[in-house]
Amino acid sequence: MSDVPGSNLISPAVSRAKGSEQLKKRRAAIGGVTAAVVVAAGVSLWAWEPWVDRSPFTALVAGASPVTDLGSKGESGECTPNLAGGAVVVYDASGKSKLASGVESSTGEVLPSSYGDFAGWCFYVTRIEGLPGGEGTYKVQVGGGNLVTVEEEHLRQPVDQQREGMRKMKLPPDDAPAPGLPAEQ
């Protein structure tokens, strides 16, 4: 020990330096916790996706079929779709979980000549109530046929907009998928 009185005490400069080091550690810990909370909140928001409308909606599945029975064309422009009364089932994107179903419409309307390749075809719409929203894509099966991938946006389109889309479409070659539908999967 030194003979100088009070020499065993820590000088104020050293004391401030040690306090500064503890303050830096405390600030770093608080910053780390804050960053972790921000990251956790961001991941939760991304997973939750509050901007996605997940409420059930009425899906509109529109289609057209050739009128095979000339007697089925009524003078009023009504017709009977080929798959009238058939089941329409909507599955999740994987095609494994059934989400909702409906019955193919029993009446339709004969499309006029302004519909090009689809002139004289029977246009019909099937309404499927209570389809859960927010899936993005769905698999749709009509009349026990193949599953077809359909975007949620398309299922939410009004009937008039879907009918108008038929005006611009061309009939595919015989070996191509059905009009307006993606390739079968």
TrEMBL record:
Gene source species: Streptomyces coacervatus
Protein name (database record): Secreted protein
Span list, region Disordered: 153-185
Biased composition (Pro residues): 174-185
Membrane spanning residue stretches: 28-48
Superkingdom in the source lineage: Bacteria
Keywords recorded for this protein, A-Z: Membrane, Transmembrane, Transmembrane helix
Biased composition (Basic and acidic residues): 153-173
